[in-house]
Amino acid sequence: xxxxxxxxxxxxxxxxxxxxxxxxxxxxxxxxxxxxxxxxxxxxxxxxxxxxxxxxxxxxxxxxxxxxxxxxxxxxxxxxxxxxxxxxxxxxxxxxxxxxxxxxxxxxxxxxxxxxxxxxxxxxxxxxxxxxxxxxxxxxxxxxxxxxxxxxxxxxxxxxxxxxxxxxxxxxxxxxxxxxxxxxxxxxxxxxxxxxxx
Length: 198
Hints:
Elements: H1 2-8, H2 12-23, H3 29-53, H4 55-61, H5 65-86, H6 96-102, H7 108-146, H8 148-173, H9 177-197
Helix pairs in contact: 1-2, 1-3, 2-3, 2-7, 3-6, 3-7, 5-6, 5-7
């Protein structure tokens, strides 16, 4: 259910986490992909029909969309079919593009069919990516555990070098005590000179 709700509202992250959970054995990868696919189809169709029926109302509620819709409209004019298939991978335009498509003459049947194909591919790629990322993450953790002492020693060495550099720089920037006293004595002598002239 969390995957369904998350993908309904631009949920790449939740789908990746679902893939990782599937690798860990907490979820079934097929169900993760299925719920991710259904969630994104319903969410994007909602934005499409909002653009078709309630575009003015939505733009009043979300004025920040106006500039992004201009950009989305330019992309729609040049790459309409391809864009419907791949817009889920465009960060920042994921919800705006279905909305902008709803404001164009693109038929609902065309959008729904192409968007569904794109959703299936997206769910497989992102969910599967999370699954294989979980495998890579586990392997990396195992390597870190294997070389844990060496890793900590390297970190300690780097930290010591940085501390020595900072300490050396701080000692160089401080003026020696003799120069400070000498400067003070010189000021004092200069202050006494008028009295001696009198």
